[in-house]
């Protein structure tokens, strides 16, 4: 992108004029989901898998199916954009979400394709890829400054600064342009953007802190559904991600003449720091969302933890159910 584009782009974000009452809004609302991929073979084995292309387990596939059905059917959400890491555990999770979107909304809504991006990959663990995370070698080496002087071929892990740079590039290229879009339609005619970003636990944490840095401290709120007892960490470190769990936030235009529902949080940036999105407010709606996994049991006999193979029969086909059995909770 050229320099002039960035100048115009950031000018629109930084100097967006306040709107008079009754005027059509240039920006209604964005709903943003930061989603972790389904369970993988290396999650089960307890191995450090950053850029290694881990396969989903059978249980992980069931998790992705639950997630897709939950967003499309239970929440009735029409996704407008789906971004995913180009590692298969992430993009297959995203494809399952897209599949459910298509089944539910294809007749009335343009279902987006999954955009696969290397920018959304997990942290590269270097020479520690596929080393047991609890091993002494991994625990002693997991610092950005570590270098094994006895091994000239040792490759250190990716730094947090490099991950932040990737997060910034992704936001600039893919998310912030959506917030800068100007519509000529009335609010009633706007289709709010609903964006899913499917990535990996450590990178999602960096992406969240990068997103947070774009807002004024006074514009960030915790939604009423978030339990402050269970989610009382400092805001930059608030979210956590189990497999297929998500952080859900909304981004809206600030309305200074109305009170904002929710709890004001401790400052993350000073209002004088001029964050890019100084005319937007961010509300945290869901932290570690996993309602879609309620009641899901791992298939017994080790099948749930084995890598998924598209060529195999569906899991229910491995077993013949007795006619008298009515309780399916074990599967």
From TrEMBL:
GO molecular function: fructose-2,6-bisphosphate 2-phosphatase activity
The UniProt record lists the keyword Hydrolase: yes
Biological process, per Gene Ontology: negative regulation of glycolytic process; regulation of pentose-phosphate shunt
UniProt xrefs under Pfam families: His_Phos_1
Residue ranges of the region described as Disordered: 295-331
GO cellular component terms, semicolon-separated: cytosol
Bias-annotated ranges (Basic and acidic residues): 307-319
Nucleotide-binding recorded as keyword: no
UniProt keywords, alphabetically: Hydrolase
Record: residues binding substrate: 36-43, 89
Cross-referenced InterPro entries: His_Pase_superF_clade-1 (IPR013078), His_PPase_superfam (IPR029033), PG/BPGM_mutase_AS (IPR001345), Phosphoglycerate_Mutase (IPR051695)
PANTHER family: FRUCTOSE-2,6-BISPHOSPHATASE TIGAR
Name of the protein this chain belongs to: Phosphoglycerate mutase
Organism in which the protein naturally occurs: Exophiala mesophila (Black yeast-like fungus)
